[in-house]
Amino acid sequence: MQYVRAVWRRKWVVLGVAVVVAALTAAHTLRQPKVYSASASLIIDVMAPRFLDGEVKEVMGEERSNYWFNKEYYATQSQIITSRAVAGRVVDKLGLSTDADFLGMAHITDEKTRLQAMQGADAVALVQSRIRVIPARDSRVMNIAVDDFDARRAALLANEVAAAYMAENLALKLRTTEDARDWLEIRLAELESQSKTSELAVYDFKKDADMLSTSLESRMSIVSERINSFNLKLTEVRIQIAAQQARVEAIHRLRKASPEDETWAEALSGASDGPIQDLRRSYTELRMTCAELGERYLSEHPKLLECNRKLSVVREDFLKSLSNVVRSAETSLAESVAQEKNLVRLLDAEKSEAFLVNKKAIEFDRLKRDSDNNQRLYELVARRLKDIELSGMLRTSNVRVLDPARPILVPVKPHVRRNLAVGLVMGLLAGLGVVLLLELLENSVATQADVEERLGLAFLGVMPRLDGSKAPRERDLHVHREPKSTAAECCRAIRTNLLFMSPDNPFKTLVVTSSGPQEGKSTTCINLGVAMAQSGNRVLLLDTDMRRPRLHRAFGVPNELGISSLVVGEGTLDAAVKSTEVPGLFVLPCGPLPPNPAELLHTQAFTDLLKAASERFDRVILDSPPINAVADAAVLATKCDGVVLVLKAAKTNRESARRALRSLADVQARMYGAILNDVDLSAPRYGDSYLGYQGYGQYAEDSKDGVAQS
């Protein structure tokens, strides 16, 4: 409601700003040239009509079935329509770069100047700025609108932009196809050369690896068969070696166990053969015969000697046969070992050959793979080149005109009604903004809320604005001479509020001050004293403003003897106090102006004077200087029961009032509250709050004519 009242209070500011903005908008709108618009509609398909087989794909003919892809596609087409390439085609076809009327330079009368200006103009950018693309929702239709100052030229430009877009779209497709064909031809030649080179490399490798008659697979198979055969034979030989080696080791163990006895040979497997068995039998028989002869004959007997000789011969033959058996086993073992070595050597050779064949196979596979890849790429590029050459012969487009543009003689700009409505609305908003800004920037104390919320003081009441045409003395005694006026009622309300500030311990001495000069503190002090005296109290007004005293002029009393005289010991209090025309109200003037008022108020004599006055009178009210101007008010605040601060409505600065309050707080003065002075009760901001005072004031005026109202 505070802001609503502020707007209502400054309603003429709002209306004034609105009228000014609306007038400026109207003037600007009416001065704008008329602009006409024409629109041509196109159908843009995602894909061009397909005349070739589905296997033959164009360079820009990819499938576009995704919603977001289609959305980006149509957004791209909109950018192409408004591009400089399309606008340049229109300018070149219509010769707009030399059209002075189109460039807006027909008003230049000088031919040379006009030509220079036309040369510096950018006709392409001008056409580009007038093109608007308006896609139809949920369709493949796009509207190309062109604005111009001539209706027929707008339609011509719209149709030409559509045609230029179609031509640019087809040219872009052909340029892309030509670029792709040139690249593919270069790539095809490179791939052909690479394919030939890779095929020759495969041939040279076959030749060097002797692969012309036998393939690597066959050679690898043969080698594998050999390796398997050698592995089987080697296994057999190693088994044979193991058996033979065991037999030889057994023979050696037997011979070592019986070195002097031939019976060890009987355990050999070869000892049971026919010849050896015969020799062993003969050896046994001769030995038995010799044993018998030895028993019969002496050792030198010829028969015994002959028998021993035959026995030695048979024994020697028998031992030789046994040795041959041992040598035969050792020889067989040596042959088997030699055979094993030969087989191992052959197997290693075959393995080496197998590794070599594998390495050649890897190299051959790589060369063969490169050759196949090059051949496959060559065939792919060759086939794609044929497709592009075939699709490049087509001149089909996915864009066609639905409706050509027609001249519309009704201008689309300026929108007079809309602009005026917008201007009026913006003016009202600007006026409201100005009012709110003024309200926010206002830094004065104007209302009760300012006193209570912003300054934190108790609100004692208001003093209405008095008639400025009256003499100063008439204004000062207005409450006394017009006791039923609005001002008198306001003073009585202030008096009541002051008395209720401390009902148990009512004040005796009260300082009335203000933050600055010309805020009405002296008038308020007089009116407050009159109201106190009218309630039956003996009231004394002390004029402690020893720089600009005015209480003696307000009551018409002499100023030769006053406070300054009493403080310095001249005269008595009874002689200095003057009565006034108000019953019960007395005044103690300032007296001669002292050179040092602040020091005078600090003296014990002034304290004694104030004490004596408070003992003789019910209320003592001190009219002090402004507290921000001099320190007198702060001194007086320390010697009195309380302080009342007078604020001039809509004039007293909030910061000045806060500074005054800080000064009083520094001396620990007791603040009773603030009085809002010079309030214009007829102003809108005070109409609701103080309506009762206005009615009471009306009653007071009517009562003079003898009209009784309640």
From TrEMBL:
<feature type="domain" description="Tyrosine-protein kinase G-rich">
    <location>
        <begin position="366"/>
        <end position="437"/>
    </location>
</feature>
<protein>
    <recommendedName>
        <fullName>non-specific protein-tyrosine kinase</fullName>
        <ecNumber>2.7.10.2</ecNumber>
    </recommendedName>
</protein>
<dbReference type="InterPro" id="IPR027417">
    <property type="entry name" value="P-loop_NTPase"/>
</dbReference>
<keyword id="KW-1003">Cell membrane</keyword>
<keyword id="KW-1133">Transmembrane helix</keyword>
<keyword id="KW-0808">Transferase</keyword>
<feature type="domain" description="Polysaccharide chain length determinant N-terminal">
    <location>
        <begin position="3"/>
        <end position="94"/>
    </location>
</feature>
<comment type="similarity">
    <text>Belongs to the CpsD/CapB family.</text>
</comment>
<keyword id="KW-0418">Kinase</keyword>
<dbReference type="InterPro" id="IPR025669">
    <property type="entry name" value="AAA_dom"/>
</dbReference>
<dbReference type="GO" id="GO:0005886">
    <property type="term" value="C:plasma membrane"/>
</dbReference>
<comment type="similarity">
    <text>Belongs to the etk/wzc family.</text>
</comment>
<dbReference type="InterPro" id="IPR005702">
    <property type="entry name" value="Wzc-like_C"/>
</dbReference>
<feature type="domain" description="AAA">
    <location>
        <begin position="520"/>
        <end position="669"/>
    </location>
</feature>
<dbReference type="Pfam" id="PF02706">
    <property type="entry name" value="Wzz"/>
</dbReference>
<dbReference type="InterPro" id="IPR003856">
    <property type="entry name" value="LPS_length_determ_N"/>
</dbReference>
<dbReference type="Pfam" id="PF13807">
    <property type="entry name" value="GNVR"/>
</dbReference>
<keyword id="KW-0812">Transmembrane</keyword>
<dbReference type="InterPro" id="IPR032807">
    <property type="entry name" value="GNVR"/>
</dbReference>
<keyword id="KW-0472">Membrane</keyword>
<dbReference type="Pfam" id="PF13614">
    <property type="entry name" value="AAA_31"/>
</dbReference>
<dbReference type="GO" id="GO:0005524">
    <property type="term" value="F:ATP binding"/>
</dbReference>
<keyword id="KW-0829">Tyrosine-protein kinase</keyword>
<keyword id="KW-0067">ATP-binding</keyword>
<keyword id="KW-0547">Nucleotide-binding</keyword>
<keyword id="KW-0997">Cell inner membrane</keyword>
<dbReference type="GO" id="GO:0004715">
    <property type="term" value="F:non-membrane spanning protein tyrosine kinase activity"/>
</dbReference>
<dbReference type="InterPro" id="IPR050445">
    <property type="entry name" value="Bact_polysacc_biosynth/exp"/>
</dbReference>
<dbReference type="GO" id="GO:0042802">
    <property type="term" value="F:identical protein binding"/>
</dbReference>
